[in-house]
Design goal:
Blueprint: H1 3-8, E1 13-19, H2 26-38, E2 43-48, H3 62-73, E3 79-81, H4 94-105, E4 110-116, H5 117-120, H6 129-132, E5 137-141, H7 155-164, E6 180-183, H8 192-200, H9 211-219
Parallel strand pairs: 1-2, 1-4, 2-3, 4-5, 5-6
Helix pairs in contact: 3-9
Length: about 220
């Protein structure tokens, strides 16, 4: 096959990073940047969850978490804040978000959902999880604090991974959905949980998250 012709058949690809972002930090941002580069993504959409079904009730409002995301990504033209989950009533299920994105972007757009390997170990407990791969690809990343302590996958997920796995990142540009790939990213051992504890104790979080986000937290007296 002519390589230039093959290149012309590739479809634009975007990445999706969802989460509570409570608060957003450099671990989120660096992972998104490295995946965008490795997978040759035109855009990464950050989608704050309004009412995540697997999380306890959040004390910081969805709007404030979204404002922190907007501040954190403001200087990166490939990063976009997507507030669709904040505008939807009820639990923030991934299947609903992905269907909404598919309806917006069309049947041929390549969509890749970023997911930590710890989250993937519980993927078969997600709402309508088996339908998700029909709407997007999945890029798995290993959280640094879990390296060497990987959670064993259920037989169901092992079969799922075997059926959909590809080591070639270019494959996501050939199809709109259906592929699972795994990428290594820089190990930044930062967690929102640890940051919340540090902020509550009035410990410094400098160099763990963007300065403008720290300023926002301080001016709004969050996590006190």
């Amino acid at each position: 096959m002519n390589t230039s012709a093959a290149a012309n058949t590739k479809i634009p690809a975007i990445g999706i990073l969802g989460g509570t972002f409570n608060p957003i930090h450099f671990g989120h941002l660096r992972m998104a940047q490295e995946l965008a580069d490795a997978l040759k993504l035109a855009q990464v959409r950050f989608i704050p969850a309004a009412n995540p079904p697997h999380k306890d009730m959040l004390t910081i409002s969805a709007q404030q978490r979204a404002e922190m995301v907007q501040l954190a990504i403001a200087d990166n033209h490939r990063f976009v804040l997507d507030k669709r989950e904040l505008l939807r009533v009820g639990a923030s299920y991934s299947i609903d978000t992905l269907q909404s994105l598919r309806d917006e972007l069309g049947a041929t757009a390549s969509i890749t959902l970023f997911m930590g390997s710890d989250a993937f170990s519980k993927f078969d407990t997600w709402h309508r999880w088996q339908e998700i791969i029909q709407l997007c690809h999945i890029a798995l990343v290993q959280r640094p604090q879990l390296r060497g302590h990987d959670t064993a996958l259920s037989k169901t997920l092992e079969t799922f991974l075997h059926n959909h796995y590809s080591e070639n990142p270019d494959d996501i540009h050939e199809l709109p959905a259906g592929i699972v790939t795994m990428r290594q990213v820089t190990a930044l051992d930062i967690s929102s949980t640890a940051l919340r504890k540090a902020l509550k104790s009035n410990d410094s979080v400098r160099y763990l998250m963007p300065g403008n986000v720290i300023d926002y937290i301080q001016s709004n007296q969050l996590y006190c």
